Amino acid sequence: MVGDNGAESRIPLKLCLVAMQIEMFIALGFAVAGLAFIALALWWRARIKASIEQGFSSTHVMTDDELAMFHRIKLADPAFLVLPQVPLARVLTVRDDRNQEGLRLIDDQTVDFVVCDEASRVLAVIELDRDAKLGGAAKLKETMLLAAGLRVLRWRIGELPSSDAIRLQVAGQIWQGAR
């Protein structure tokens, strides 16, 4: 390109070279960032996999006391369907789905045992108390069960009843529920 005074102008060529260098650096930056992202994703995946493989082990579903109670309930009447650690939401329903407070109250709670008949109707809810005094959550849970027409049988750990006593108590629950 020739300028006004007849001299050749090299500025556009220099600008073109600078622009090409900038584009090359930008492309290189994106390539490095992409490789870094892929490396980070692979590292994170390997870390999670190692955590899963090393971070878990199986455990018993019931404690020794709960297992002893389970066997006593089964001896009381082999026809009983005995379910341990049942979510409260499987025993109770909230009448109005818009009752978010009610749903929240039963969402994360469990009962120690639910004793059902062969049609899975609840005959009794059994709770094993660790302390002599009921805490606020246990009282609230019992209030909700009572409101649903269910009664709770409670025994303290270390003072578990015999199978005969359990049979009589559950039979009493059935008879009281029939009234």
Give the overall shape, derived from the CA principal axes. elongated
The oligomeric state is: single chain
Please tally the helical runs, counting DSSP H or I stretches of 4 or more residues.
Answer: 5
Structural class call reads alpha+beta
Q: State the major sheet.
A: 4 strands, mixed
The share of residues in extended strands comes to 15-25%
- Which regions have little confidence, pLDDT < 50, spanning 5+ residues? 175-179
Terminal CA distance: 108 Å
Number of DSSP-assigned strands? 4
Please estimate the helix content.
40-55%
Cα Rg: 35 Å
In order across it, which strands form the biggest sheet? 1-2-3-4
Mean pLDDT across the residues is: 83
Provide the succession of SSEs: HHEHEEHEH
Explain what you see.
The protein is of the alpha+beta class. The protein has helices spanning 11-55, 64-76, 100-107, 136-147, 163-178, and strands at residues 81-87, 110-116, 122-129, 152-156. A four-stranded mixed β-sheet has the order 1-2-3-4, sandwiched between helices. Strand 2 and strand 3 form a beta hairpin. Helix 2 crosses helix 5. It is elongated, with a radius of gyration of 35 Å.
